[in-house]
Amino acid sequence: MTDHSADTDSAVTFVRSATLEDAPASVTQAVRVRVLDTLAAITAGYRQAGIDIVRNYAVDRFSGTSTAATLLDGSGTKLHPEGATLANATAANALDIDDGHREVKGHPAAVVVPAALAVAEAVDATVDALLDAVYVGYELGVRAGLAIHEIDGVYTGTGSWGAIGAGAAIARLRGFTREQTAHALGIAEYHAPRTPIMRGVEQPGMTKDGIGWGSYVGAVSAQLAESGFTGSGTVFDETDIDAVDSLGDVFHVTEGYLKPYPCCRWVQPGVAAALSLLETTDIDPTTIEAIRVFTFEEATHLRTRTPDTPEAAQYSYPFPIAAALTRGRFTQEEHRPEALADPAIVALSNSVDIRVEEALNERFPSECLARIEIDTERETFASGVTRPPGARERPLSDETRREKARRLVAPTLPRSAIDETERHLRSDTSVATLLEPWR
Asked: I need a surface site. Which of 62, 87, 111, 335 has the fewest CB within 10 A?
Protein backbone atom coordinates (compact mmCIF):
# COMPACT_ATOMS: atom_id res chain seq x y z
CA MET A 1 0.00 0.00 0.00
CA THR A 2 1.28 3.46 -0.90
CA ASP A 3 2.78 5.50 1.92
CA HIS A 4 1.01 8.75 1.14
CA SER A 5 2.75 10.74 3.89
CA ALA A 6 5.93 10.42 1.83
CA ASP A 7 4.25 12.38 -0.99
CA THR A 8 3.81 15.54 1.07
CA ASP A 9 7.36 15.06 2.38
CA SER A 10 8.63 14.95 -1.20
CA ALA A 11 6.71 18.13 -2.05
CA VAL A 12 8.17 19.88 1.00
CA THR A 13 11.71 18.80 0.09
CA PHE A 14 11.24 20.17 -3.43
CA VAL A 15 9.87 23.49 -2.18
CA ARG A 16 12.79 23.99 0.19
CA SER A 17 15.68 22.80 -1.97
CA ALA A 18 14.93 22.79 -5.72
CA THR A 19 16.80 25.39 -7.75
CA LEU A 20 16.81 26.41 -11.37
CA GLU A 21 20.58 25.96 -11.30
CA ASP A 22 19.93 22.21 -11.13
CA ALA A 23 17.32 22.24 -13.90
CA PRO A 24 17.83 22.39 -17.69
CA ALA A 25 18.37 25.85 -19.19
CA SER A 26 14.99 25.57 -20.93
CA VAL A 27 13.28 25.55 -17.51
CA THR A 28 15.00 28.75 -16.42
CA GLN A 29 14.00 30.44 -19.67
CA ALA A 30 10.40 29.28 -19.31
CA VAL A 31 10.19 30.73 -15.79
CA ARG A 32 11.64 34.07 -16.93
CA VAL A 33 9.20 34.23 -19.82
CA ARG A 34 6.23 33.59 -17.54
CA VAL A 35 7.31 36.20 -15.02
CA LEU A 36 7.64 38.85 -17.73
CA ASP A 37 4.37 37.84 -19.39
CA THR A 38 2.55 37.99 -16.05
CA LEU A 39 3.94 41.42 -15.13
CA ALA A 40 2.67 42.76 -18.46
CA ALA A 41 -0.74 41.11 -18.03
CA ILE A 42 -1.08 42.66 -14.56
CA THR A 43 -0.32 46.16 -15.80
CA ALA A 44 -2.84 45.92 -18.62
CA GLY A 45 -5.33 44.31 -16.25
CA TYR A 46 -5.40 47.40 -14.09
CA ARG A 47 -6.80 49.33 -17.08
CA GLN A 48 -9.72 46.91 -17.34
CA ALA A 49 -13.13 48.04 -16.12
CA GLY A 50 -13.93 46.75 -12.64
CA ILE A 51 -10.42 45.97 -11.43
CA ASP A 52 -10.38 49.28 -9.55
CA ILE A 53 -12.91 47.66 -7.17
CA VAL A 54 -10.34 45.15 -5.94
CA ARG A 55 -7.50 47.66 -6.11
CA ASN A 56 -9.40 50.17 -3.99
CA TYR A 57 -10.35 47.46 -1.51
CA ALA A 58 -6.72 46.44 -1.16
CA VAL A 59 -5.53 50.03 -0.77
CA ASP A 60 -8.20 50.70 1.85
CA ARG A 61 -7.45 47.57 3.90
CA PHE A 62 -3.71 47.04 3.44
CA SER A 63 -2.15 50.52 3.53
CA GLY A 64 -0.27 52.02 6.44
CA THR A 65 1.61 49.04 7.89
CA SER A 66 4.38 46.96 6.34
CA THR A 67 3.78 48.59 2.96
CA ALA A 68 6.58 46.77 1.19
CA ALA A 69 5.04 45.42 -2.04
CA THR A 70 4.30 47.39 -5.22
CA LEU A 71 1.02 47.51 -7.15
CA LEU A 72 1.91 47.12 -10.82
CA ASP A 73 -0.57 49.76 -12.00
CA GLY A 74 2.12 52.35 -12.67
CA SER A 75 1.24 54.42 -9.60
CA GLY A 76 4.14 53.25 -7.44
CA THR A 77 1.69 52.48 -4.62
CA LYS A 78 2.97 50.03 -2.01
CA LEU A 79 0.84 47.86 0.25
CA HIS A 80 1.25 45.05 2.74
CA PRO A 81 2.33 42.00 0.66
CA GLU A 82 -1.03 40.28 1.15
CA GLY A 83 -2.90 43.27 -0.27
CA ALA A 84 -0.54 43.60 -3.22
CA THR A 85 -0.94 39.88 -3.88
CA LEU A 86 -4.73 40.10 -3.96
CA ALA A 87 -4.83 43.14 -6.25
CA ASN A 88 -2.00 42.15 -8.60
CA ALA A 89 -3.25 38.56 -8.97
CA THR A 90 -6.78 39.74 -9.77
CA ALA A 91 -5.37 42.11 -12.39
CA ALA A 92 -3.19 39.32 -13.82
CA ASN A 93 -6.25 37.44 -15.09
CA ALA A 94 -8.44 40.46 -15.84
CA LEU A 95 -7.88 40.20 -19.60
CA ASP A 96 -7.61 36.40 -19.71
CA ILE A 97 -4.33 36.87 -21.56
CA ASP A 98 -2.09 35.23 -18.93
CA ASP A 99 -0.16 31.98 -19.33
CA GLY A 100 -1.88 28.63 -19.04
CA HIS A 101 -1.37 24.88 -18.86
CA ARG A 102 -3.41 22.47 -20.95
CA GLU A 103 -3.52 19.39 -18.68
CA VAL A 104 -4.61 21.30 -15.58
CA LYS A 105 -6.82 23.63 -17.66
CA GLY A 106 -5.80 26.74 -15.74
CA HIS A 107 -3.39 29.62 -15.25
CA PRO A 108 -0.45 28.77 -12.94
CA ALA A 109 1.67 31.89 -13.43
CA ALA A 110 -1.11 34.38 -12.66
CA VAL A 111 -1.68 32.84 -9.24
CA VAL A 112 1.98 32.14 -8.32
CA VAL A 113 3.91 35.14 -9.68
CA PRO A 114 2.00 37.91 -7.81
CA ALA A 115 2.37 36.14 -4.45
CA ALA A 116 6.05 35.40 -5.02
CA LEU A 117 6.75 38.91 -6.28
CA ALA A 118 5.11 40.65 -3.31
CA VAL A 119 7.04 38.62 -0.74
CA ALA A 120 10.30 38.75 -2.71
CA GLU A 121 10.10 42.54 -2.68
CA ALA A 122 9.20 42.60 1.00
CA VAL A 123 12.18 40.45 2.04
CA ASP A 124 14.57 42.23 -0.38
CA ALA A 125 15.24 39.04 -2.34
CA THR A 126 17.35 38.70 -5.44
CA VAL A 127 15.88 38.00 -8.85
CA ASP A 128 17.39 34.51 -8.72
CA ALA A 129 15.54 33.81 -5.46
CA LEU A 130 12.30 35.08 -7.00
CA LEU A 131 12.72 32.83 -10.03
CA ASP A 132 13.42 29.78 -7.85
CA ALA A 133 10.26 30.54 -5.85
CA VAL A 134 8.13 30.88 -8.97
CA TYR A 135 9.59 27.62 -10.26
CA VAL A 136 8.70 25.57 -7.17
CA GLY A 137 5.29 27.27 -6.88
CA TYR A 138 4.42 26.62 -10.52
CA GLU A 139 5.42 22.95 -10.36
CA LEU A 140 3.55 22.31 -7.09
CA GLY A 141 0.47 24.23 -8.25
CA VAL A 142 0.06 22.25 -11.46
CA ARG A 143 0.56 18.95 -9.67
CA ALA A 144 -1.97 19.93 -7.02
CA GLY A 145 -4.48 20.74 -9.75
CA LEU A 146 -3.99 17.39 -11.45
CA ALA A 147 -4.42 15.60 -8.10
CA ILE A 148 -7.51 17.60 -7.07
CA HIS A 149 -9.21 17.01 -10.41
CA GLU A 150 -8.43 13.29 -10.18
CA ILE A 151 -9.87 12.95 -6.66
CA ASP A 152 -12.88 15.26 -6.96
CA GLY A 153 -13.83 14.37 -10.52
CA VAL A 154 -14.97 18.00 -10.97
CA TYR A 155 -13.28 20.67 -13.05
CA THR A 156 -12.49 23.55 -10.72
CA GLY A 157 -10.67 26.73 -11.66
CA THR A 158 -7.16 27.90 -10.90
CA GLY A 159 -7.90 29.34 -7.46
CA SER A 160 -8.80 25.88 -6.13
CA TRP A 161 -5.27 24.54 -6.65
CA GLY A 162 -3.19 27.64 -7.35
CA ALA A 163 -3.28 28.61 -3.67
CA ILE A 164 -0.89 25.71 -3.03
CA GLY A 165 1.53 27.07 -5.60
CA ALA A 166 1.37 30.55 -4.09
CA GLY A 167 1.92 29.16 -0.59
CA ALA A 168 4.86 27.08 -1.81
CA ALA A 169 6.56 30.09 -3.42
CA ILE A 170 6.20 32.15 -0.24
CA ALA A 171 7.43 29.32 1.98
CA ARG A 172 10.56 29.15 -0.18
CA LEU A 173 11.20 32.90 -0.06
CA ARG A 174 10.69 33.11 3.69
CA GLY A 175 12.92 30.11 4.39
CA PHE A 176 10.28 28.07 6.20
CA THR A 177 11.16 24.94 8.14
CA ARG A 178 9.91 21.59 6.86
CA GLU A 179 7.02 21.69 9.31
CA GLN A 180 6.03 25.26 8.42
CA THR A 181 6.22 24.46 4.70
CA ALA A 182 4.01 21.38 5.06
CA HIS A 183 1.43 23.36 7.00
CA ALA A 184 1.54 26.25 4.51
CA LEU A 185 0.68 23.83 1.70
CA GLY A 186 -2.02 22.09 3.74
CA ILE A 187 -3.69 25.27 4.95
CA ALA A 188 -3.65 26.76 1.46
CA GLU A 189 -5.29 23.72 -0.09
CA TYR A 190 -7.91 23.35 2.64
CA HIS A 191 -8.89 27.03 2.53
CA ALA A 192 -8.66 27.51 -1.23
CA PRO A 193 -11.80 28.68 -3.11
CA ARG A 194 -13.92 26.02 -4.79
CA THR A 195 -14.19 27.91 -8.14
CA PRO A 196 -16.83 25.96 -10.13
CA ILE A 197 -15.40 27.00 -13.48
CA MET A 198 -18.23 25.96 -15.80
CA ARG A 199 -20.61 28.23 -13.89
CA GLY A 200 -18.14 31.05 -14.53
CA VAL A 201 -18.04 30.12 -18.20
CA GLU A 202 -21.81 30.10 -18.59
CA GLN A 203 -22.50 33.07 -16.26
CA PRO A 204 -19.36 35.23 -16.59
CA GLY A 205 -18.44 37.52 -13.71
CA MET A 206 -15.35 39.11 -12.21
CA THR A 207 -14.83 35.98 -10.08
CA LYS A 208 -13.58 34.13 -13.20
CA ASP A 209 -10.95 31.48 -12.31
CA GLY A 210 -10.69 32.58 -8.68
CA ILE A 211 -7.08 33.57 -9.31
CA GLY A 212 -6.95 36.70 -7.17
CA TRP A 213 -8.52 34.98 -4.19
CA GLY A 214 -6.49 31.80 -4.64
CA SER A 215 -3.24 33.75 -4.63
CA TYR A 216 -4.37 35.69 -1.57
CA VAL A 217 -5.32 32.47 0.25
CA GLY A 218 -1.82 31.13 -0.44
CA ALA A 219 -0.29 34.30 1.01
CA VAL A 220 -2.43 34.28 4.15
CA SER A 221 -1.93 30.53 4.62
CA ALA A 222 1.84 30.96 4.58
CA GLN A 223 1.57 33.74 7.14
CA LEU A 224 -0.59 31.54 9.38
CA ALA A 225 1.77 28.58 9.08
CA GLU A 226 4.72 30.77 10.06
CA SER A 227 2.79 31.76 13.19
CA GLY A 228 2.07 28.16 14.20
CA PHE A 229 -1.34 27.50 12.61
CA THR A 230 -1.57 23.88 11.45
CA GLY A 231 -3.03 22.19 8.42
CA SER A 232 -4.48 18.71 7.77
CA GLY A 233 -2.11 17.18 5.26
CA THR A 234 -2.32 17.78 1.53
CA VAL A 235 -4.01 16.33 -1.52
CA PHE A 236 -0.71 14.66 -2.37
CA ASP A 237 -1.41 12.27 0.52
CA GLU A 238 -4.67 11.10 -1.06
CA THR A 239 -3.96 10.15 -4.65
CA ASP A 240 -2.12 7.35 -6.43
CA ILE A 241 -1.43 9.42 -9.55
CA ASP A 242 2.12 10.52 -10.19
CA ALA A 243 1.73 13.92 -8.58
CA VAL A 244 5.12 14.43 -6.95
CA ASP A 245 7.30 11.48 -7.97
CA SER A 246 8.34 13.33 -11.12
CA LEU A 247 9.44 16.51 -9.34
CA GLY A 248 12.84 17.52 -10.71
CA ASP A 249 12.44 15.24 -13.75
CA VAL A 250 9.26 16.53 -15.45
CA PHE A 251 8.98 20.30 -15.76
CA HIS A 252 5.41 21.50 -16.22
CA VAL A 253 6.52 25.10 -16.64
CA THR A 254 8.00 24.16 -20.02
CA GLU A 255 4.70 22.61 -21.13
CA GLY A 256 2.50 25.67 -20.68
CA TYR A 257 1.24 28.08 -23.30
CA LEU A 258 1.17 31.83 -23.83
CA LYS A 259 -1.92 33.66 -25.09
CA PRO A 260 -1.93 36.18 -27.94
CA TYR A 261 -5.60 37.17 -27.54
CA PRO A 262 -7.48 38.40 -24.44
CA CYS A 263 -10.12 35.68 -24.18
CA CYS A 264 -10.64 32.13 -22.97
CA ARG A 265 -8.06 29.70 -24.35
CA TRP A 266 -10.86 27.55 -25.73
CA VAL A 267 -11.76 30.38 -28.14
CA GLN A 268 -8.25 31.13 -29.36
CA PRO A 269 -7.98 28.48 -32.09
CA GLY A 270 -11.17 29.84 -33.64
CA VAL A 271 -9.88 33.42 -33.51
CA ALA A 272 -6.58 32.31 -35.03
CA ALA A 273 -8.41 30.45 -37.80
CA ALA A 274 -10.58 33.48 -38.57
CA LEU A 275 -7.60 35.85 -38.73
CA SER A 276 -5.71 33.38 -40.92
CA LEU A 277 -8.61 33.27 -43.40
CA LEU A 278 -8.70 37.06 -43.47
CA GLU A 279 -4.99 37.16 -44.30
CA THR A 280 -5.00 34.42 -46.94
CA THR A 281 -8.31 34.99 -48.78
CA ASP A 282 -10.34 37.89 -50.12
CA ILE A 283 -13.20 37.56 -47.61
CA ASP A 284 -15.29 40.72 -47.34
CA PRO A 285 -16.71 40.68 -43.77
CA THR A 286 -19.77 42.64 -44.92
CA THR A 287 -20.80 39.72 -47.16
CA ILE A 288 -20.60 37.00 -44.49
CA GLU A 289 -23.89 35.16 -44.01
CA ALA A 290 -22.93 32.32 -41.64
CA ILE A 291 -19.96 31.09 -39.60
CA ARG A 292 -19.59 27.53 -38.34
CA VAL A 293 -17.04 26.64 -35.67
CA PHE A 294 -16.11 22.98 -35.17
CA THR A 295 -14.37 22.26 -31.88
CA PHE A 296 -14.52 20.31 -28.58
CA GLU A 297 -17.59 20.04 -26.36
CA GLU A 298 -16.47 22.31 -23.50
CA ALA A 299 -16.02 25.23 -25.89
CA THR A 300 -19.65 25.02 -27.02
CA HIS A 301 -20.65 26.36 -23.57
CA LEU A 302 -19.18 29.75 -24.53
CA ARG A 303 -22.47 30.76 -26.14
CA THR A 304 -22.87 34.47 -25.32
CA ARG A 305 -23.52 36.39 -28.54
CA THR A 306 -23.96 39.93 -27.25
CA PRO A 307 -21.68 40.36 -24.23
CA ASP A 308 -22.13 43.52 -22.17
CA THR A 309 -19.03 43.23 -19.98
CA PRO A 310 -15.35 42.45 -20.64
CA GLU A 311 -15.71 39.15 -18.77
CA ALA A 312 -18.67 38.12 -20.92
CA ALA A 313 -16.67 38.98 -24.04
CA GLN A 314 -13.77 36.81 -22.84
CA TYR A 315 -16.09 33.87 -22.17
CA SER A 316 -17.88 34.15 -25.50
CA TYR A 317 -16.99 32.21 -28.64
CA PRO A 318 -19.16 34.09 -31.16
CA PHE A 319 -18.10 37.60 -30.15
CA PRO A 320 -14.29 37.29 -30.47
CA ILE A 321 -14.71 35.53 -33.83
CA ALA A 322 -17.00 38.30 -35.06
CA ALA A 323 -14.73 41.05 -33.74
CA ALA A 324 -11.67 39.46 -35.32
CA LEU A 325 -13.38 39.21 -38.71
CA THR A 326 -14.79 42.74 -38.50
CA ARG A 327 -11.70 44.54 -37.18
CA GLY A 328 -8.89 42.19 -38.16
CA ARG A 329 -7.84 41.74 -34.52
CA PHE A 330 -9.02 40.83 -31.04
CA THR A 331 -7.32 42.98 -28.40
CA GLN A 332 -8.14 44.80 -25.17
CA GLU A 333 -9.78 47.49 -27.31
CA GLU A 334 -12.45 44.98 -28.29
CA HIS A 335 -13.46 44.72 -24.60
CA ARG A 336 -14.53 48.36 -24.53
CA PRO A 337 -18.20 49.43 -24.54
CA GLU A 338 -18.05 50.85 -28.07
CA ALA A 339 -16.81 47.49 -29.41
CA LEU A 340 -19.36 45.50 -27.41
CA ALA A 341 -22.12 47.62 -28.95
CA ASP A 342 -20.66 47.76 -32.50
CA PRO A 343 -23.61 46.83 -34.79
CA ALA A 344 -21.35 45.14 -37.34
CA ILE A 345 -19.73 42.91 -34.71
CA VAL A 346 -23.05 42.11 -33.03
CA ALA A 347 -24.67 41.17 -36.34
CA LEU A 348 -21.79 38.86 -37.23
CA SER A 349 -21.76 37.37 -33.73
CA ASN A 350 -25.38 36.32 -34.20
CA SER A 351 -24.38 34.34 -37.30
CA VAL A 352 -21.90 32.06 -35.48
CA ASP A 353 -22.85 28.41 -34.91
CA ILE A 354 -20.61 26.31 -32.62
CA ARG A 355 -20.55 22.55 -33.14
CA VAL A 356 -18.78 19.58 -31.56
CA GLU A 357 -16.44 17.67 -33.84
CA GLU A 358 -15.67 14.34 -32.25
CA ALA A 359 -12.14 14.07 -33.61
CA LEU A 360 -11.25 17.40 -31.98
CA ASN A 361 -13.19 16.57 -28.83
CA GLU A 362 -11.08 13.44 -28.30
CA ARG A 363 -7.88 15.51 -28.40
CA PHE A 364 -8.97 17.88 -25.59
CA PRO A 365 -7.59 18.84 -23.03
CA SER A 366 -4.10 17.92 -24.25
CA GLU A 367 -4.81 19.89 -27.41
CA CYS A 368 -7.11 22.88 -27.91
CA LEU A 369 -8.20 22.87 -31.56
CA ALA A 370 -10.85 24.22 -33.91
CA ARG A 371 -11.66 24.78 -37.55
CA ILE A 372 -14.13 27.19 -39.09
CA GLU A 373 -16.25 27.56 -42.23
CA ILE A 374 -17.48 30.93 -43.43
CA ASP A 375 -20.35 31.31 -45.91
CA THR A 376 -20.36 34.54 -47.87
CA GLU A 377 -22.84 35.69 -50.50
CA ARG A 378 -20.75 34.02 -53.22
CA GLU A 379 -18.72 31.17 -51.73
CA THR A 380 -17.68 29.22 -48.65
CA PHE A 381 -14.23 29.54 -47.10
CA ALA A 382 -12.81 26.84 -44.80
CA SER A 383 -9.80 26.83 -42.51
CA GLY A 384 -7.81 23.78 -41.63
CA VAL A 385 -7.73 22.41 -38.10
CA THR A 386 -6.05 25.22 -36.19
CA ARG A 387 -3.86 25.17 -33.10
CA PRO A 388 -3.66 28.58 -31.41
CA PRO A 389 -0.40 30.54 -31.46
CA GLY A 390 1.47 30.23 -28.18
CA ALA A 391 0.77 26.50 -27.75
CA ARG A 392 3.80 24.44 -26.85
CA GLU A 393 3.58 22.89 -30.34
CA ARG A 394 3.30 26.38 -31.88
CA PRO A 395 5.29 28.68 -29.58
CA LEU A 396 5.38 32.44 -29.96
CA SER A 397 8.70 33.73 -31.23
CA ASP A 398 10.79 35.72 -28.76
CA GLU A 399 10.00 38.95 -30.58
CA THR A 400 6.27 38.17 -30.78
CA ARG A 401 6.01 37.55 -27.04
CA ARG A 402 8.02 40.69 -26.30
CA GLU A 403 5.80 42.74 -28.58
CA LYS A 404 2.74 41.32 -26.83
CA ALA A 405 4.18 42.45 -23.49
CA ARG A 406 5.10 45.91 -24.82
CA ARG A 407 1.57 46.35 -26.14
CA LEU A 408 0.09 45.32 -22.81
CA VAL A 409 2.08 47.74 -20.64
CA ALA A 410 1.51 50.76 -22.91
CA PRO A 411 0.31 53.43 -22.25
CA THR A 412 0.68 52.84 -18.50
CA LEU A 413 4.44 52.40 -18.92
CA PRO A 414 6.87 53.07 -21.75
CA ARG A 415 7.27 50.09 -24.07
CA SER A 416 10.98 50.07 -23.18
CA ALA A 417 10.03 48.86 -19.68
CA ILE A 418 9.71 45.34 -21.08
CA ASP A 419 13.23 45.24 -22.51
CA GLU A 420 14.67 46.73 -19.32
CA THR A 421 12.81 44.21 -17.16
CA GLU A 422 13.90 41.30 -19.31
CA ARG A 423 17.53 42.36 -18.87
CA HIS A 424 17.06 42.42 -15.09
CA LEU A 425 15.52 38.93 -15.19
CA ARG A 426 18.83 37.69 -16.60
CA SER A 427 20.96 39.26 -13.89
CA ASP A 428 21.34 38.53 -10.19
CA THR A 429 20.07 41.94 -9.18
CA SER A 430 17.47 42.71 -6.53
CA VAL A 431 13.73 42.46 -7.01
CA ALA A 432 13.60 46.15 -6.07
CA THR A 433 15.72 46.91 -9.14
CA LEU A 434 13.58 44.60 -11.28
CA LEU A 435 10.50 46.64 -10.37
CA GLU A 436 12.00 50.08 -10.99
CA PRO A 437 10.17 50.47 -14.33
CA TRP A 438 6.85 49.96 -12.49
CA ARG A 439 7.39 52.80 -10.04
From this structure: 62
